[in-house]
Design a protein that fits this description.
The protein has 234 residues and is an alpha/beta fold. It folds into two domains: 3-102 and 197-232, Periplasmic binding protein-like II (D-Maltodextrin-Binding Protein, domain 2, 3-Layer(aba) Sandwich), CATH 3.40.190.10; 105-193, Periplasmic binding protein-like II (D-Maltodextrin-Binding Protein, domain 2, 3-Layer(aba) Sandwich), CATH 3.40.190.10. The protein is built from seven helices and 14 strands. Strand 10 (128-131), helix 3 and strand 11 (147-150) form a beta-alpha-beta unit.
Length: 234
């Protein structure tokens, strides 16, 4: 694995050796920051900490905008990104560890909305908002939706509150979490796809490492650790 050499004490940086670089984004409740951005927390982050503790693989987590976080894992050896939806397009681009969290896709409306949806097609006559570059948004665009895209879910929640969009497409856990933070009252109208989230690693990560991580993750599922983590954030 990569070894980052010491740059010298005057630069205040030293070696990061023999480990994996993990990139992530601000996407509550799976991965997000507290303490003014100093600490990365969340259900997926908690699972990652326990997974790497058990495997004794060293790692470092850094938060970036989503597009950059994903691209780094594609292009940089010994780099992985979470929390990632395992789409058909991404399948061959990464080595996969997971799932690390459930993430059903839902269309939300304001709590006082009179909109009713019986199918996904019913939503096409409304203005639907989503997170730019997110798998949910990309999926709906493939279904011929014209999406109102924002830089993050916080902005999409604000648009819904202001009446600039009619529906918000996001995860079943992330939507309510962000809405509560933004003081936006919402209700789910339609669950349109059941998915899960993964740790996606650069293809250069050793297969033995991927196998070790997956085997350990399965042990965490069997002993109830993953269920306990998920319930904490529901």
């Amino acid at each position: 694995m990569k070894k980052l050499l010491c740059m010298g004490m005057l630069l205040g940086s030293c070696a990061w050796a023999d480990g994996l670089i993990l990139t992530t984004e601000d996407a509550a409740p799976y991965n997000y920051t507290t303490d003014g951005g100093k600490t990365i927390v969340g259900s997926a982050t908690e699972a990652i900490h326990e997974l790497f503790k058990r495997t004794k693989i060293s790692y470092k987590i850094t938060l970036y905008p989503w597009v950059r976080a994903l691209e780094m894992a594609k292009s940089e050896k010994d780099t992985c990104v979470y929390s990632t939806t395992r789409t058909e397009e991404r399948e061959k681009q990464f080595a996969w560890v997971g799932p690390i969290a459930p993430n059903d896709w839902v269309l939300f409306a304001k709590a006082d909305s009179t909109i009713k949806l019986a199918s996904l097609d019913d939503a096409k006559k409304y203005k639907v908002g989503g997170y730019r570059g997110d798998a949910v948004t990309l999926y709906l665009q493939e279904q011929k939706f014209v999406m109102d895209e924002a830089a993050n879910d916080d902005q999409t929640a604000q648009k819904l509150e202001a009446g600039r969009i009619d529906l918000w497409a996001t995860g079943n856990l992330g939507g309510p979490f962000v809405a509560n933070k933004m003081k936006t009252k919402i209700k789910p109208l339609l669950t349109f796809k059941k998915t899960e989230l993964y740790l996606a690693c650069n293809k250069g990560v050793a297969p033995d490492t991927i196998n070790q991580l997956n085997a350990t993750l399965q042990a965490m599922v069997k002993d109830g650790t993953m269920e306990k983590i998920t319930k904490k954030y529901q």
